Amino acid sequence: MKKYTLLLIVCSLFALRSSAQAPKWMDKAKHAVFSVITYDKDDKILNTGNGFFVTENGIALSDYSLFKGAQRAVIIDADGKQMPVDAILGANDMYDVIKFRIKTDKKVSALLIADNSAPAGSDVYLLPYSTQKDRSFTAGKVKDISKMGDNHQYYTLTMSLKDKMVSCPVVTVDGKVIGLAQKSSGKDTITTCYAAGASFAMSLAISALSAGNLTLRNIGIKK
């Protein structure tokens, strides 16, 4: 019983310490993270997940898997406000990322995309979606970096990732986003996860040549 009580005290102290060490910018940054709900052709819930704003006029990033087969989608922000997805702006099924726009009549909190890649060994934070006013976060490190697309990065992270954290933003110590969190499918799921480069997702676009793109055609939302 004494050991159990001591363990609770230690855990409580660690939680308080983690909260106290949260950077000052985190409160504002977490308002950029939201929940996503997609609906099928029968207007039944298809998938739920996460995403985050990268511009103040409502451009956002998430994972393509959430939207595949969707006919409409909404997001719920950190204040509990629901907003509809207005248009799909680009998607890539290989890296499971999507860019879209939210219909909003005012500016939203958004994360800045890092100008440079985070080097191996650097500290990073994962910002979870929450409607509560807290500074909870998951800390980790960049383990490895590989090339993604023409000039973007795909990160291997030393970090434990729960299912409900997929597509949450991974940010640097100064609060700039480097990627969207993705789970590991191998034996190292407890200590390792990945992040698809946010700059790659932001570079996605739709052109006249996209008409036959099956990835985009699998989404019924306006392009």
TrEMBL record:
Protein name (database record): Lipopolysaccharide assembly protein B
Organism phylogeny: unclassified sequences, metagenomes, organismal metagenomes
